[in-house]
Amino acid sequence: MKYVLTLGCLLIGLGSAAQEFGQRKGFRGSVKKQDKSIELNEVEVSSSLAKTTYAAATRQITVLTAKQIQELPVNNINELLDYMGSVDMRQRGPLDVQGDLGVRGGTFDQTLVLVNGVRMNNPQTGHHNMNLPVPLQMIERIEVIQGGATNAHGIGAMTGVVNIVLKSAPMKFNAGYALTTGEHGLSNSSFYLGKKIGKWGVQLGQQSQRTAGYIPNTDFESSKLFVNLEREFKLGKEKGHVSIFYAENQKAFGAQNYYSTTFPDQFEATSTRIFGLKLDESIGLNTDFRFNMNLVTGTDRFELYRETAGLGGFDASSVAYDKLSSGRYYRAADGDTAASWYSGPNFHQTLVFNQNIVATHRWNVTHQSSLGYNLRYDEINSNVLGAAGGEVLTIPEWEGYTMDKGASTADFSFFAEHKYTRERFQAIAGAMLNYHDGPTGDSSYFLAPSLDVLYRLTKDASLYATANRSMRYPTYTDLYYNRGGAQGSIDLRPESAWNFELGYKQKSGQIYSSAALFHRRSKDLIDWVSYAGDPIAYASNITSLALTGIEDAGSELRLLAAVKN
Fold it and tell me: Which end of the chain is more exposed for a tag (fewer CB within 10 A), N or C?
């Protein structure tokens, strides 16, 4: 008999704070009952280089806030994104073990994922983009930008952007704990605490999950940790906000038929660690300055034929293989032998450094200009991906294995944007110019211009149109992979697309409705292609695609909770 036991949220506060938190059973996060709602039109969104609001955005944007998240029947970010329009969230296991995210018909490699300004897109493969080290209760809001946004967010934002914005520390001490248990050894625990101490805000969140799996080889263990320090400051006429945070996500899971039915008994273990620094500053009344710098590291061990012992109480002897002295892999349970070409797990280690600067100046009520710069450097060390001849790294606890291949890439992006507003009319013209220094020493430039216009029919109704160019570069898997009947290509070109959109949005009381007609013309799309008589699938730029669609958000009540400090 299935059983689920949930220990309700333990809320600790000073004074009457314990009565101010959300009403749901369990722990969804800290959303005070007394918080006043603010209109969606007033919410800041990231659809352009400069700060803007939902009402002024010239894109289809879906926003979910902490209050709405708390009221939805979800336990993790993957389940939450399933509720958002134009999002294709393909989950391969429960409790966000593994999932691929696509927006507006794009692939998991074509969507940019941000957490508090940190780019989570993994240079090895987009399968790791959702390895997010953020417990659900720490999210202030999630916004999904449908359509290309390279002009504002840079490379990778080809078909859409998912931006996860985290909460600020509350004034009063706020803490919570939740525990869920169930069949198959399921255990899911999390806690959160936050408080402003003097001028500093402190937050700490942690989550641990494990299970033996509902069928063989679906066992997993995972943990998340997030620590954030933030402070508001004022220096003369300058005021701003600075935050420093560290986060990590570690997973190990049986991947039964996750990636291929040809090799069903797979296993994977990944880790993601982030260190970030973020600064928002207002200089006088007319100039804003934003700076963020972050370092994201990752590891991945992928076993095409599982050899790792069971997790969460699972007995893996029925699916796991042993490595014989001959180097072949053999499973005693049924006498099966791995393919003769298989020599052991794939090991990968990635590092990504990002630095972003954006300055915005309001010349007057009519004109506003923004300039931006982004530096991105990424590298990979692997026993499979990259070129040989570089540094050779040993692998702890895996004697006899080394990472003797590697590659690195650098991108320098420059942004410019000008906004013109006059009465009911608004126009934004911008562009991104990127210089790409590829892994083979090749270099190239890419220009992504954009033009957005908006006309307010009434105070609460607008028509808008946008045209922009977007792109993404191949991952290291696209370039170098050569296992299990798949062959990457170092000669791949970047994918690119022209995006066109015409939309309407309206507010009637607290009811918001919107609709859009969009068209995307893509070229050099990367696909894995097999040819007659050849069992190998090759990564190739062979596909062009013209996609036309209609999005109708319908009419819905969208109220947002304002967190009062």
Answer: N
